[in-house]
Every structure is written in C-alpha cells, then in structure tokens.
Design brief:
homodimer, about 425 residues, alpha/beta, SH3 type barrels, Rossmann fold, 5-stranded antiparallel sheet, 9 helices, globular
C-alpha cells in the first residue's frame, strides 16, 4: 500500500530512521513531520518508506482529552494550536504540544486564564511558523469556522511569530466572523525569565471574550509587562527579530490595547462588534503568487522569470511612492498583458503608494500595474492569492485588490 | 557614424521625435535621457536614430560656469548633483538642473548657504533615483575622490530619495574619507509650500563643513522644521513613502542632528573625525547580486533560478531571526556549493539575525549561509556586490561579509 500525504510512515535513509507524518512536498523530496513538531526534508534517493498507519485525523481535528468547558458561567473559547502552546514550558516555535495540551495543563501553568473562560483545545499543526503554507491557512480557517459554528464565543490561535502576520491577513480575508479571532505568540520561550508567554496568553483571552469581532493579533505593546496591543490582522507586521514588542500596527492605529494585569480593554479605533457580522467562509486561494523586490539596478530577469513560470500574480516591492527602473516597465506590461495581475507596493513599509506623481509611476500604471495603496507588501501578496481564488479575470481581481475588504486599505494614512 | 552611449541623438518613432542622450540599456530598447532629466525607453522597431553630437562630457564632469569659490574665508564644498538640485524650483527627483545649476542660482534660492561655504558644482547625472545603477555608484565615487583630491573640504551629493540609502551604503564601502560626504534630498519638491528642500540643503552644508568625516545622509528629523538627523550611510533607510522625516537610522542611533535654523550640530554616537582617515577609493563591485524575500510557502524556484542564472551573490530576506522553510535549505546548500555566497537577513528590518537558536536556522548555517547580523537587507546586498568586487573566493567574501567595514554591523543592537 502506497503511503500518501498525512499518513504515518517510517523512512530509512543511509542508516538513519525517521518516523513521522508524510507532509505535502513541492520539491520531490520527502518531507516528514516528526513527533517533536519539526519537519525534515529527506532525499528520495536511497530512502525506503514504510507505511505505519493511514491518514489518521492526527493533524486536523485532534482534541486533547480533558480539555473541555467546566464553568458554565464563563464563555467558551476554542484554542487552536498551530505550533506552540500557551500552557507548557515549551515555546511557541518548536511547540511539542500534542500530548500535554489539556485544560488542566493550561490552568496549572497560567491559573489566571481559568478566571476568563472555559477552553476547548485543538491541535491543528505542530510546525515552525516559517513552514506554514497557504494551503494550511485554508485548513486553519475551516477549523475556526467549525469551532464558531459549534458555539465558540471566541477563538485563540497560537502561532509562531515569524509568519503570524501572513496567517492573520489570510484569516482576515477568508472569514467573516461574529466573534473575536485572536492570534497570539511569544517572542521568548516560556522557560526564559523574560518570557512574554503568559501575559500575551492572558491578554489574548481577554480579547477573545471581548466584543471585538475581528481577526487580530495580541502581543506585547512595550518592553515592560504593562499592556498588549490589539492589532488588526491586515495592518500588523513583525518589526523586530527579538523584542517582545516586535509587532506593530503599520499605517493604522491598533484597534486598542489590553492593560495588564487588570485585563481592561481600551479601544482607540473603530472595529466590528460581536454579532455584527454573520459567520461565513471563503477560503479558496491561489498560492502561486510572489513578491519581487526592486533594488538599485535590479535586472528585470526575475520579473520575466516569474511571469513565465506559471505564477498567477505578482506583488512588486518598489521604491518610494512605488517605483521601479524604467527598464522594468515593458516587463510589467508583458505580465499584465498575459493576464497576470501586478500590484505595486513600497519597500518603505510606511506610507501610501502613489504612482500618479512622477513619469515612472504613470508609465507603471499605463503598463497595467495596480497601486497597492497603503497595504503592506506581505498583506498585498496574501490578498492577491485570495483574490485569485475568489475571482477569475483580471478586471475582477484588480477590482478586489483596489477595494478595502478587511481593513487592509485605509482611506488616509496618518502622516 | 554610429551613435554610442552618451552621444546626443535624435530618435524618431511613429511620428514622435525625441532628443536626448543615449543611455546604457540592458534590454535592447533605446534608453534616452531627455533634456528635462527623464529617461524614456523606446523600442528599436521602427525607430530611426540620428547622431547629433558625439559623447560630449555632458553627463560626467560638467562644471557649470560661475559656480566657483568666492569667499576665501569660507571652506570649499563640492556639490555633486545626481538628479536634482538644492537651488532651483525643480525638485530632486526630476532634476532638470544642467543649465541653471550655478553658484548664483544657489545663492538666489537659499541665500543662507552663502554664509556657510563656497560651492563648486558638478552635474554627475540627471536621473530619477530609481534609475540609478551600481555602475553609476562607481562613477560617483570616482567624482567624489577627485573632488577631495582637488581640495574640497566637504562633499554634498544631491540625490533622489527613493534609492538614496543604496547609494549612501555603496559610497560608505567604496571610499575612505578625510572629509564629510553628505547625501541630501527632498521628499517634497521646492515649489510646494511644505518643501523640505532648503532646510535639508542648509543642514547638509553644515554637516559638510563639520568634523564628521563619514558618508552620511542628512534629512528632516521630524515633521516640523526644527532639526535634521545625521544618519550613518550604512544604517539608514527610507521608512515612509511621503513624510519629510522618512529617513530613519535602523539598529543604531543617528550620528547626531543639526538644529535649525541655528545650524548647531549635536552628536550622540561616536564617529570618524575630519582628517582621521586617509583618502582611498575601492570602487570595484559585482552588480550581479539579488535580494530574494521569503514569504509564507514561497517556492524555492526563485532561489534556484538566481543560482542558475549567473548571479554571483544572493541575499535572503528571511522571517524573524533569519528563517526560511525547511524546503529551501538544500537549495541554499546548492548555491553555496556552487560558490555563490548566501547572506541571511531579516524582513523584520529591526533587530539582529541569529540562526543559532532554532533547528531551521542551524540547518541554514550548515548549508553555508552567512548571518547578516544586524545589517539592513539592502545594505547587505550593496556590501555583497562590493565584497565580490574586492575579493575572489567564498572564504574571503564571507569574511568581509562578517566583518564590520563601514559601521554596517554593530556589536549589540539596542532592544
């Protein structure tokens, strides 16, 4: 019997034996998710694969025992784990959470959480967040949809911080939600004295039980343990490799913040309130999209390569107001002529793209590129994948890209 | 007689006539620099080219008449223009400066400059800064070297803001300087009431006559007209598409600031003093390098394409501490095995790369990637071009990349 994706297998190669779950692989090599949560890539040459167990629902829909609601007076929160835990001594990134991820563990580690809600816990993935894939966003969105359908009053998603902003943006586009959907992570693992693990988790639970019915990221707002920001899922970016307050709202103010330890929520931007929207799911997307960054003198080869290699959409990180060298313009036109949407964003990160001011910009627009407004390049990429999943035809896709769908485009940027 | 690069030509195509200077072109199309400073790209099909005048020294080494020192008590500053002027009503980007760029014009527009120095003015280029090329950095560095050799007490380079940080980094690596080399630009053109044109120019002149003998960027420090930051050339980034205080020092404090209108300089970081270093020039570089940005689920195809298309060096903008998905690791190894240095930086922009913490990172290091420390991805790219121009052999190039050459790597980052 042939082993298929998500089957449990044993792989022997050059004297080493691995056991794990067979993961989707783009490259032809064997990708195995080990019990400890790590993925390994193994060359198919000289590897022998033995099937241990058929696709068990081990990755999706695994509910740990004992992780059920207990106090009927408190709201019910579903915690979906993608690569970490807010409960254990193991950090969000490496996240070996499967067995010990129970309500009892949570209460034992962070007793304060017990005052806030009852928790239903599901392990969706145990991966490092740099190994997330657009396909996984869809599965995660389905799991969120399922939990809300089953009555969850709020969702907490634990996630590695590296690509949390990409997942937050994806869920923002995929789900219309009547309840809060909160992504939370930790910059420092729980076994370090400076860990942000517990405080972030407590603030996330406060937001998940609040009336803020949006996809948001809740992480430390300063280097002290005094508050967490509540960032809109489409306006947030990891802006530091290691600081606890690495996450910042860009081109928008945060929705608000959660004071700690009081758990008091103060909002400073308008937001969608609990129950205002009906639950719906549009999780289809086209992952074959890329970001290309323009740098001084960069050859148009990369643009040409992507246009000719089956990519369905391209986001350019231009300079300043959204520029590339004059030599790139005909290649942008080639791409858009071939039905590949090209979205212009800025590597400045802050501010708004405006290609109407200078000749280069106007040429870029004439070549069919779409201004990404004040969208983050990474958010424009995720949105483009989603737009291509929702609509066919350049005109419709471009229209979606120009329209604010989930707070990703603000009418005017503070300056 | 065949028209060659930098010759003055007339191009007729489909009823339109252009006159301008024939520029180097990568794409096979005709690139013409018009009198107004813009470049146009024209398809060779159905275009007829008439030679008007042979390569006159119009682009390089053009000294405008009347732009010479007049007051012997004041220091002599050379202003090298690359695409703009601090004198005229025309903005830095479009920069139609050739004819009116004289000392008289400067004094007429910004009389305060006359109190600070005598000015010797040279037009090096008149291009939009997104059309800068690594080859032009070398020419600019040679011009700077020439001016200092000829006795200039300081250099001001006027530059479009889009790629100013790339040029500043390039000059930082190419030139050891005994005098200040100041890049300055304008986010708002001189004909707008909110223009930062004059104040930036005055502060730049103050720094060019100071004892700060480094390549630096002098631009608005706030949205008010109260001070300009003095940024180290390897630690500065354009962080906003339109704000006047778009330029920020990253992972380092600025060298200092210039108060306005007092022109008082306050330094807050250590710096190289006037006369401390002997003038030297190492302008050789290898432009065939690229930045590749890792995004969730990004295919390793782009890495494979660049490794196999004659690229001599690659900078990866990874996530967080410097990560890519596990699937990229063998392709990094392929590149380094083929003698292509791979430098890992972070798209977080702030903070330091550290690939020793997690398995993915350690695998990336084992595959031969070099940690970019706290270098900006763009600076790492420029440095890699320069390192490949200076040294052959992976070991030597990697050693240069790991060593602080011009303040681009700081030992510890504020957190």
């Amino acid at each position: 019997m042939q082993a298929e994706e998500y089957d449990r297998v044993r792989v022997e190669t050059k004297g080493t034996v691995y056991e794990g779950t067979l993961m989707p692989s783009q490259t032809g090599s064997i990708v195995l998710k080990l019990k400890n949560g790590y993925n390994v890539g193994i060359s198919r040459d000289s590897a022998s694969v033995t099937l241990l167990r058929k696709k068990e629902d081990a990755i999706k829909k695994e509910t740990a025992p004992g992780c059920q609601a207990t106090n009927k007076k408190l709201p019910d929160i579903s915690i979906l784990s993608t690569g970490g835990t807010i409960a254990s001594k193991i950090d969000y990134r490496t996240g070996a959470v499967t067995s010990q991820f129970t309500a009892e563990d949570i209460m034992a580690s962070i007793p304060e959480l017990g005052e806030i809600a009852n928790y239903n816990c599901r392990v969706i993935y145990s991966i490092l967040s740099e190994n997330m894939r657009p396909e996984y966003w869809s599965e995660l969105a389905c799991a969120v949809h399922e939990e809300i359908t089953n009555g969850a009053d709020g969702i907490i998603i634990t996630h590695g911080t590296d690509t949390m902003m990409y997942t937050a943006a994806a869920l923002s586009f995929m789900i219309q939600t009547p309840v809060p959907i909160v992504l939370v992570g930790s910059q420092r693992s729980a076994d370090r004295p400076s860990s942000d693990n517990a405080m972030n988790a407590i603030c996330a639970a406060a937001v998940a039980t609040s009336d803020i019915a949006e996809v948001c990221v809740v992480m430390h707002g300063s280097t002290s343990d005094d508050f967490c920001h509540i960032h809109r899922g489409t306006k947030v970016r990891k802006m530091h490799t290691s600081r606890r307050d690495a996450f910042q709202s860009i081109n928008a103010r945060p929705i608000g913040h959660v004071e700690y330890p009081s758990r008091k929520i103060k909002t400073i931007s308008s937001y969608t309130k609990r129950g205002e929207k009906k639950l719906s799911l549009n999780d289809k997307l086209e992952p074959k999209c890329a970001i290309i960054k323009y740098t001084t003198g960069a050859s148009s080869e990369s643009l040409l390569f992507h246009s000719g290699s089956g990519y369905r959409g391209i986001v350019i990180e231009g300079t300043g107001l959204g520029h590339v060298s004059t030599e790139w313009v005909p290649y942008i036109k080639n791409a858009t002529d071939a039905g590949i949407p090209v979205i212009m964003t800025s590597q400045c990160i802050y501010g708004r793209v405006c290609d109407r001011v200078y000749d280069t910009g106007r040429d870029i627009l004439k070549a069919g590129a779409i201004e990404g407004e004040d969208m983050l390049p990474e958010v424009a990429l995720v949105k483009l994948m989603w737009a291509l999943g929702q609509a066919s035809g350049m005109d419709k896709v471009n229209e979606i890209m120009r329209t604010d769908m989930a707070g990703e485009i603000t009418r005017s940027t503070r300056s």
